[in-house]
Amino acid sequence: MKKIVSFIILLAFSRIAGSQETALLTGQNNLSFVPNATLYANEDDQYTMSKFALSLNPLGFCQFGPLINAEFGLTENVVLNTHVRFSSLGLVSYLIHYHEDGLDELSGIAFGGGPLYFIGARRSKPYVGILLEYDQAKMLYAKDEQWEWEQTSKSIIFIFNGGYRFRFEGGFFINTGAYFGAASTRYEWDYTDPSYGNNDHTSRDGTDITPFGMLEVTVGIEF
Q1: Phi, psi angle pair for 91, to nearest 5°
Q2: Whole-model pTM over 0.85
Q3: Fewer CB within 10 Å of terminal CB in the chain, N or C?
């Protein structure tokens, strides 16, 4: 996980440094170039979405887990988002799964994606999109106790994603936005020692529908 985050950050800085060096060399070799108001006014019309981008939403550590995104450009204004969300690394994930028996182990990961539409022709743009996720998690409670038990859950999550992308020279960008949606979750639980639960007739499975939401501050690089 740390290697992936470091890779994305290094890519961002290398692209920014490269673009600055290119701009400097161009300026030195073309001293006759004089920028004008018309050129800057029309520049924004040329900023279509890139064919590929990588990004990270570290704010997920405080919520339902950080996201690593890979985007593939489909048209000038539409990209296909694919992502993995490390749900077990989120603080809110831990809190919602906590039980009076404690929470000794939590593991889980979510995969998802969907189209994002970027509005307008300027470099920085607002965006809206629809995402679909599959989330699987496993929890262990009352570890080493006689009544030790575990629970598994599988969720399908429908998400609306909206926000604004600030794009900079060199391909670096920052998204600020939010995710809103709902999760349909199927869960099952049982004692790790089957003989302990012989006299417990509590239902061992069920289905929940719950709201889902996260704030987004994503940093990334376009290629």
Answers
A1: -65, -45
A2: no
A3: N
